[in-house]
Design goal:
Porin_dom_sf, signal, single chain, 10 strands, 7% helix, 66% strand, 1 helix, Ax21 family protein, Lipocalin, Ax21
Length: 184
């Protein structure tokens, strides 16, 4: 009877024992150059980070500042959210994230919003992982919501240091980022 109860308990706990895919870390900080090209061209800097507080959950956030080309105008972008990752193969995770976002251009250009995205992230080689996500973001104040696609990759030089590159395709605007990444 005792063995049967232990076996049932172990079998019932298997779905909850998922981890992040082998070699994929959700603990990192990165900073670097960020640019937007489209209706308005802008460039600047950004800092991002993520912290895994459970095998399948992480919090993430970021800050960026960009100056619009040929103008004295700039804007800040903030986001903070929570993500869920589920191993679907030994080196691949299903990834789902939701975030609060803020776009602040000063004066009357202050918008709150949210985003959600889903996709995959996986270890493609010993020192190279990549991700592909589709998402939707929406802001208040008359900015229409939009679907987007995001592709990114991390090349690791050693266990902690690497380079991150990220491209986001959002309608007529393409945003990209490149910078060093510290992972633990």
């Amino acid at each position: 009877m005792k063995r049967t109860l232990i076996a049932i308990a172990m079998a019932a706990s298997v779905p909850f024992a998922a981890n992040a895919a082998e070699g994929v870390s959700y603990n990192y900080v990165t900073a670097g150059y960020q640019a937007s090209n489209g209706d308005v061209d802008a460039d600047g800097y950004a800092a991002r980070g993520s912290f895994a507080f459970h095998d399948n959950f992480h919090v993430f956030g970021g800050f960026g500042n960009q100056e619009i080309d040929h103008t004295p105008l700039d804007f800040d972008r903030y986001n903070i959210g929570v993500g869920y990752n589920l191993e679907i193969a030994p080196r691949t995770d299903l990834l789902a994230r939701v975030a609060y976002q803020k776009l602040d251009g000063g004066r009357d250009l202050d918008f709150d919003g949210w985003s959600t995205e889903v996709g995959v992230r996986g270890l493609l080689a010993r020192n190279f992982d990549g991700y592909a996500l589709v998402g939707y973001e929406d802001y208040d104040g008359g900015i229409d919501g939009d679907f987007y696609g995001r592709l990114g990759a991390n090349v690791n030089f050693n266990a902690n240091w690497g380079v991150n590159g990220d491209v986001k395709f959002n309608g007529d605007v393409t945003e990209w980022f490149v910078g060093p990444r510290f992972t633990w």
